[in-house]
Amino acid sequence: RNWTTIKEYEDIKFEFFEGIAKITINRPEVYNAFRPQTNFDMLNAMDICRERSDIGVVVLTGTGDKAFCSGGDQNVKGVGGYVDEHGVPRLNVLDLHKAIRSLPKPVIAMVNGYAIGGGHVLHVVCDLTIASDNAKFGQTGPKVGSFDAGFGSNYLARHVGQKKAREIWFLCKQYTAKEAEDMGMVNTVVPLERLEDETVEWCKTIMMRSPMAIRMIKRGLNAELDGQRGLMEFAGDATMMYYLMEEAQEGKNAFLEKRDPEFQKFPKFP
Ligand code: 2NE
């Protein structure tokens, strides 16, 4: 498969192939743990994914066959957060969670190994998870002095139920890909050598569907959980769709032509 580089970054690879953007955390020496720079890189790539209309689906993965992502890089964990190159403690992976939720296109976690700690949260936040059979899932927060009571807990509970979500966080055990699939937090499990083929097939199937329909489904499913913000994003897309209608054009045209708008000519569906 001929992936072409979209943009060079320090901590990630960002590539394109036939409508698919692939973001690969490229820090195999720390099992693809993220530091603040990694999240800044991913946030920038997500902005590009949002802007480029030739990108239909985004795939998130990690370099190698050991880890998808092992969470926050413990080497740079300081007081108050993960410390960037200027000495500022940050938790900017949360901005990435918001960007994944907010992107009006599907984001698929292609889990090629450990999805642990903040790396587990990352796959949870993605719209779909496709895992290789060697993948391992789990939380470590309460074992290593951390936790994510946001999407990493409450959205997880929507996938696996409250009891299992509490088990995952309270015990910090590891689960096989098959167990994760049975729990409902993984869509499918395939042999490692098939992982990318399978993911690309899912992407291509999704891209044959109506992008606007997919977008509204993602917005609607998010809105139930995301409170005012979810409603705002759903409503924003309703406004966008209204702007595509002649009825909305009539309002603007009438204003510019200094006349009363003729809204009554538009149908009122039951
Ligand atoms: C992932 C896991 C279970 C793998 O275990 P194993 O035994 O197969 O490998 P090993 O030897 O532990 O790891 C391989 C190399 O990767 C580094 C290790 O230090 C090791 O390096 P060397 O000794 O070979 O030089 N490595 C792995 N994970 C790392 C990490 N997160 N930061 C820095 N280096 C890391 C095992 O490695 C593991 O349990 N890793 C730690 C997982 C973890 O606790 N992550 C942080 C959770 S908190 C978090 O992510 C978070 C949050 O809860 C809320 C908000 C934001 C972040």
UniProtKB/TrEMBL annotation:
Site (Important for catalysis): Y82, Y243
Cited SUPFAM superfamilies: ClpP/crotonase
Enzyme class: lyase
E.C. designation(s): 4.1.3.36
Annotated PROSITE patterns: ENOYL_COA_HYDRATASE
Keyword match Lyase: yes
Cofactor: hydrogencarbonate
Keywords: Lyase, Menaquinone biosynthesis
UniProt xrefs under InterPro entries: ClpP/crotonase-like_dom_sf, DHNA-CoA_synthase_MenB, Enoyl-CoA_hyd/isom_CS, Enoyl-CoA_hydra/iso, Enoyl-CoA_hydra_C
Record-listed substrate binding positions: 70-74, 82, 114-118, 140, 146, 243, 258
Record carries keyword Membrane: no
Annotated hydrogencarbonate binding sites: Q139, T140, G141
CDD domains: crotonase-like (cd06558)
Gene3D superfamilies noted in UniProt: 2-enoyl-CoA Hydratase, Chain A, domain 1 (3.90.226.10), Lyase 2-enoyl-coa Hydratase, Chain A, domain 2 (1.10.12.10)
Pathway: Quinol/quinone metabolism; menaquinone biosynthesis; Quinol/quinone metabolism; 1,4-dihydroxy-2-naphthoate biosynthesis; 1,4-dihydroxy-2-naphthoate from chorismate: step 6/7
Pfam family, one: ECH_1
Single GO MF descriptor: 1,4-dihydroxy-2-naphthoyl-CoA synthase activity
Catalysed reactions, as listed in the record: 2-succinylbenzoyl-CoA + H(+) = 1,4-dihydroxy-2-naphthoyl-CoA + H2O
Record-stated family: Belongs to the enoyl-CoA hydratase/isomerase family. MenB subfamily.
Biological function: Converts o-succinylbenzoyl-CoA (OSB-CoA) to 1,4-dihydroxy-2-naphthoyl-CoA (DHNA-CoA).
Protein name, per record: 1,4-dihydroxy-2-naphthoyl-CoA synthase
